[in-house]
Every structure is written in structure tokens, then in C-alpha cells.
Amino acid sequence: MKSMEDISYVVSRMVFESYGVSGLYEACHAQMNHATRLMKYRVPEPDETDLGLTPHVDTNFITVLYQGQTNGLEVQKKTGEWVTAGLSPSSFVFMAGEGLMAWSNGRISASHHQVTMGKTGKTRYSFAVFTSIKWTETPEELVDEDHPLQYKAYDHDEYMRYISKTGLEKDPLSLKAFCGVN
Ligand SMILES: O=C(O)CCC(=O)C(=O)O
Ligand SMILES: [Fe+2]
């Protein structure tokens, strides 16, 4: 678990560096907190859908996921097509959540993903570290005439309260509705 948190630190730092704002990383790191979840997906009955988890974007900043021996994670491409994240059993997936999308001023899209059980006939386990930051604010370095601000700065807890109240949890446009700049 500790090493999965480390992956989220290392890759986020790389993202900050790649956008030329590595000086802002420490302050972001200081407000990161992590929630872990172990998920178990049972084998669907013959008359059940094999959709293990419905399509969604993660509402947090970034997610690091380990899906062990049983593939099933699918990510939607911009074209709308779903692709299997076919990974070796020793791989970890780093996924952008809505927080990173807002932070990057829309340069990084939040990953729209789902879990399909397929026909393996095996119970699936996955383990995720969901990293969130309390206050998400787009660096001014990432805003200019060609890239006008897309999301106002927001408090993650307030956003959580908003989506539980509105029931917009699975809606990939809920952050836009909450703090999008029109
Ligand atoms: O189990 C998985 O592979 C994905 C889990 C997931 O997307 C989530 O819990 O948000
Ligand atoms: Fe997810």
C-alpha cells in the first residue's frame, strides 16, 4: 500500500514537471490524502450482465490501481470505444481523476472507466489507492488566451457533498456542473 502511495507521488511529480510547474508540487503533496479500497467482483450468474462496475470517472485527484491476475478494467477512448487495460499481473494503473483534469485545465482528461467480468469464470479482486487533495486550483501557468480557465478552484469535500446531494456521482460532467467556467 505504501508503495502504491509512492507511485501516486512519483507520477504526480512527473506530471507537474512535465507542465513546467515542479515548484508547485510540494504544496500539493502536503495536502494529499489517500483512501484504500479492496474490491471483490464475484462471477456473474449466466442470466446476469458481466458489467462488474458501471462506467464512471473517479472524483478524486488520481487513482493507482492494482488488478492482480484478472483483467477487467476497461477505459473509454475519445472515440467512444472501450479498450481493455490488458496488463501483466505485476502492473499498476495510474488514472487521472476529475481533480487532475481540473488542475491541468482540461489538458488531462479524467479517465472514463468500467469493469467487465468477461468469461474467465474467476472471482476478480482489485486494490486501489484513491488520492485526493483538499483544495484544487489550476496553476496560473496553465491558463492563457488559448487555454482559458475551465474550472474554478474548489474544495473536494464540498464537491463530494454536492454529488451525493444531486446524485450526479456517475456523471462525467458533474464537475463541470459544480465549478465549470462557462
Ligand atoms: O476494480 C477496478 O479495476 C476498478 C475500480 C474502480 O474504478 C473504482 O473503484 O473506482
Ligand atoms: Fe474508478
Automatic annotation (TrEMBL):
Residues 32-133 form the Fe2OG dioxygenase domain. It holds the Pfam family 2OG-FeII_Oxy. It comes from the Eukaryota. PANTHER family: 2-OXOGLUTARATE (2OG) AND FE(II)-DEPENDENT OXYGENASE SUPERFAMILY PROTEIN-RELATED (PTHR47990). This is Fe2OG dioxygenase domain-containing protein. It comes from Kalanchoe fedtschenkoi.
